[in-house]
Write a structure and sequence with these properties.
This protein has 3 helices and 5 strands; from the N terminus they run βββαββαα. The chain is an alpha+beta fold. The chain folds into 2 domains: 39 residues; 93 residues, GMP Synthetase, Chain A, domain 3, CATH 3.30.300.20. Helix 1 crosses helix 2. The chain starts with 10 loop residues before the first strand and ends in an 8-residue tail after the last helix. The model has no long low-confidence stretch (mean pLDDT 89).
Length: 147
């Protein structure tokens, strides 16, 4: 393994209430997950789909605010709207031939800034280029069950 690699570990525990689980990093609760606000049935936390979309928005936000500070741009507010399309039939049967994940993810960045629209556009484009969550989603990552 490359000695420059770093590992991030998150533990997810079932809460013994329906499908509710809690993700933790060390002693810090990261989030509660369940079926999600937009699903049928119980709402006991964000769904993993909603968490993935939130991670993309949060990652873009980190890079937008950090780069804005570095470039000395004035930011009054930032909102990132993220949405994804999936076909629920893909989760019901592996023989359906329908992918179980998102078919498309879209995001829209709204920046309130007195700086030039060109500077803001460049900021958004640079943040999107270096966002590791976007890169992971777009280019995929090998996922294995550790033994």
């Amino acid at each position: 393994m490359d000695t420059n690699m770093k590992t991030i570990q998150v533990n997810v525990d079932w809460e013994h209430v329906g499908v509710k689980s809690i993700a933790r990093v060390g002693d810090h609760t990261v989030l509660e997950m369940g079926r999600g606000v937009q699903s049928q049935g119980e709402d006991n936390g964000a769904s993993p789909f909603e968490v993935l979309l939130s991670a993309l928005g949060g990652c873009l936000m980190i890079f937008l605010t950090g780069l804005a500070r570095k470039k000395r741009l004035t930011i009054n507010n930032i909102r990132i709207n993220v949405e994804g399309d999936y076909d629920p039939r893909g989760m019901s049967s592996s023989s359906s031939g329908i992918r179980s994940g998102f078919q498309q993810i879209r995001y829209q960045v709204e920046v309130d800034s007195p700086d030039s629209p060109e500077a803001v556009r460049e900021l958004i484009e640079q943040a999107a280029r270096i966002c590791p969550i976007k890169e992971t989603i777009m280019n995929g990552t090998v996922v294995v069950e550790a033994q």
